[in-house]
Design brief:
With 192 residues, the chain is an alpha/beta fold. It contains six helices and seven strands. The radius of gyration is 20 Å and the shape is globular.
Length: 192
């Protein structure tokens, strides 16, 4: 009986080890704008009502990130797959996240729109929890370039959570709403 119990315990432990996800998979899986909006109590404004555009109110969101290899986002940490993130992939998720939030504000994401926002990451870093610190913190610096105006805006977000991947998702939420609520970008998209 002891041998059978030990065998079952070993199988369960091995199955658990094989089912672990990476940090990148956790972040990707958690990028659900509607759920995060609900957690933060975010109420999307109806930007279409404030627009003065002759055509539809739309924006063209472009992933302009050029770094396309996994990087360790925890400064000073030993290289580990636990903290790897691909900036281009993450920016793709941020563009989708931002597009969904704009849609909730009644602004279409249209690749044909002349109102273009080119999104890239200036910096992303994480501080995981430890024996002395129970919260993880993610810091995100997002660049938004408006080609038509030749202007770049940088948005900084820092969020904490028990898990580093949630902290990063919360920082993405924070940064995307900073973009949406920025008065210069809003005037640009809404033709004011």
């Amino acid at each position: 009986m002891k041998k059978l119990s030990l065998f079952v315990l070993c199988i369960v432990m091995l199955a658990g080890c094989g089912a672990q996800r990476t940090f990148k998979e956790d972040v990707n899986r958690s990028m659900r704008p509607s759920e995060v909006r609900y957690l933060f109590g975010t109420q999307p404004p109806n930007l279409k009502e404030k627009a003065k555009c002759a055509d539809e109110v739309a924006v063209n969101l472009v992933n302009a990130e050029t770094a396309d290899k996994d990087v360790n986002i925890v400064p000073g940490a030993v290289y580990s797959p636990s903290w790897l993130q691909n900036p281009r992939e993450l920016t793709g998720h941020i563009v989708n996240f931002l597009g969904d939030n704009y849609r909730q504000c009644r602004v279409l994401n249209n690749p044909q729109s002349k109102k273009t926002l080119r999104i890239s990451i200036r910096k992303v870093e994480g501080i995981p929890n430890s024996a002395f610190k129970f919260n993880s913190t993610a810091n995100l610096e997002l660049d938004v370039f408006l080609p038509e105006k030749q202007q770049t805006f940088t948005f900084y977000a820092s969020q904490s959570s028990g898990d580093l991947y949630w902290a990063l998702v919360y920082a993405v939420h924070d940064a995307t709403w900073q973009v949406i609520n920025d008065p210069v970008i809003q005037d640009y998209i809404l033709c004011r």
